[in-house]
Amino acid sequence: MLSDDDVKWLETPQPGWSALRLPHMILEDSFVSGDSSGRRLSLRFFRHDPDRSLRAKVIFGPGTQGPPGHAHGGSMAAVLDDAMGGAAWMQGHPVVAAELTARFKTMLPLGARCVVEAWVSAVDGRKVRVAGRLRQGDGDTVFAEGEALFITLDPKKFGVLTSEASRIFSELDEGTS
Ligand SMILES: CCCCCCCC(=O)SCCNC(=O)CCNC(=O)[C@H](O)C(C)(C)COP(=O)(O)OP(=O)(O)OC[C@H]1O[C@@H](n2cnc3c(N)ncnc32)[C@H](O)[C@@H]1OP(=O)(O)O
């Protein structure tokens, strides 16, 4: 479903980005990134090294349609949710979403190459506030933006995932990934 050029674009980091190789256990059944057919959502995650925020490249396939030829708002909100949650995890906060706000600014044509940016904006005890933006990959058009409140979970409940996440991000710091 995706062209070879699309796959190459998805997998190529921009300057200052490091690829995140997330464990199969996180990706295989993920609602957002678990589809490898290209019909629904195709994503690749990166760390933006200068400020350690999250970036993702994403293409909304035909199976994400809402308005004819354009992405469903729920699919855009799901991508923002996932990216914002990932941004918090990337900074060492094992969280789940408690509240999410999404604003849809411009209709997103199916097949367009998009970039998601997500960053932690504030941490207050267990409350982690994150913001995000879904924009055109090669331009400034913003399709959607959002903010979310995430709540830190007891790391004991997340044992394996939390240590696996730490390992992935420390490998990035060592330049081995
Ligand atoms: C690596 C990829 C990551 C992908 C991430 C994707 C993100 C997701 O979609 S996660 C899935 C969707 N989210 C969920 O299913 C979460 C469901 N909710 C829950 O499990 C619980 O309500 C949970 C964990 C958020 C909070 O429960 P609990 O741990 O008992 O917290 P609790 O003690 O009640 O509250 C802790 C603090 O958070 C605040 N809080 C909790 N929920 C909310 C809320 N909805 N709104 C505002 N504040 C809240 C409380 O007021 C409290 O604040 P304070 O410390 O100031 O009193």
From TrEMBL:
**Gene3D superfamilies (UniProt xref):** Hotdog Thioesterase
Task: Look up the EC number in the record and give it.
Answer: 3.1.2.2
> What does the record give under GO molecular function?
hydrolase activity
Q: Which family does it belong to?
A: Belongs to the THEM4/THEM5 thioesterase family.
Name of the protein in question: Acyl-coenzyme A thioesterase THEM4
Chief localization: membrane
Swiss-Prot/TrEMBL GO biological process terms: fatty acid metabolic process
Reactions it catalyzes: tetradecanoyl-CoA + H2O = tetradecanoate + CoA + H(+); dodecanoyl-CoA + H2O = dodecanoate + CoA + H(+); (5Z,8Z,11Z,14Z)-eicosatetraenoyl-CoA + H2O = (5Z,8Z,11Z,14Z)-eicosatetraenoate + CoA + H(+); hexadecanoyl-CoA + H2O = hexadecanoate + CoA + H(+)
- Keyword Cell membrane belongs to the record: yes
Q: Where is this chain's protein located in or outside the cell? A: Cell projection, Ruffle membrane; Cytoplasm; Membrane
GO CC annotation: cytoplasm; membrane
Q: Where is the Thioesterase domain?
A: 69-142
- What does the UniProt keyword field contain? Apoptosis, Cell membrane, Cell projection, Cytoplasm, Fatty acid metabolism, Hydrolase, Lipid metabolism, Membrane, Transit peptide
Q: Which InterPro entries is this protein grouped with?
A: HotDog_dom_sf (IPR029069), THEM4/THEM5_acyl-CoA_thioest (IPR052365), Thioestr_dom (IPR006683)
Its domain of life reads Bacteria
Q: How does it sit in the membrane?
A: Peripheral membrane protein
Query: CDD domains, from UniProt?
Result: PaaI_thioesterase (cd03443)
Q: What class of enzyme is it?
A: hydrolase
Please give one Pfam family short name.
4HBT
Record has Lipid metabolism as a keyword = yes
